[in-house]
Amino acid sequence: MRLTFISTYLPQRCGIATYTSYLVDALLQVEPRVGIKVIAEDLASAVETDRLTVLPVWSRRGDYVSTILEHLEDVDCLHIQHEYSIYGFDDRLPRLLDSVPRDIKKILTIHCIRPAQFSERATIDEHFVHTIAKRADRIILHLEAQRAILMRLGIYHMVHS
């Protein structure tokens, strides 16, 4: 299997970068046939081994869609690590998800969902997470409360927690 992550990555000081490095390390240890590519934000370090490639090619400050799409060759599954501060609330991530070739499965780990009933800003958060979640084949969450929010938003058929 050829798995690609879109994420921040080490040595960038970011919890998502560390989390993704743990996922990559675990997958490489348990599955000798997996090849992993990380299409990383530009603060990561480039890596090239027989089973791992890290490409620090995009910036959250720019229109990263075409840059990321250029690196999606030979991919079976795309796993995007989502956090609001990385991708923002504009149309870039939805456009990216819409532009991924149909034969590539899309998994989205949503690390944070702020519930709308607790802040005005959270209504925007919920709307955006609904926008991106409906474009993924599977969603990974960390909390049952996040699952409840997505179910309330009508995304229950894709939720995995």
TrEMBL record:
Q: Which SUPFAM superfamilies match?
A: UDP-Glycosyltransferase/glycogen phosphorylase (SSF53756)
- List the protein's name: Glycosyltransferase subfamily 4-like N-terminal domain-containing protein
Give the domain of life: Bacteria
